[in-house]
Structure of Acyl-CoA thioesterase:
Amino acid sequence: MFVNRREVQIQWGDCDPANIVYYPRYFAMFDDSTSTLFEVAGFSKQDLVRKYGLVGIPMVDTRAKFYIPSTYGDWITIETRIESIKRSSFEVKHNVYKGEALAIEGFETRVLVGRDPDNPDKLKSAPFPAEMVAKFTGS
């Protein structure tokens, strides 16, 4: 599986009054990590639009398990990979490490979406292109 790792420093604005990361901020970090995964794999947002006719990869389900809190100034590593791919939907997993310890597991279900050819004002799921499947799964 194709994996991307990125280092993130926790900022003042990420934290609540108890000086721990306010949990919705992690979901924003996960969204950024998914976008970065596509970019690093060679599929920029511009490519998704121009080459594949997609308008986005919206999230349809998300959840997380929190084990270790982070505070202002901490550095975390977010490791992101696509766990499985179906026709148009896919599962993303984010492992967040604080040092060597697993701090958070994040999960997303996303769908490739394009314009409905029968009605361009509507959106419709789009099949996962074979070259993207090959890149993300290593097959």
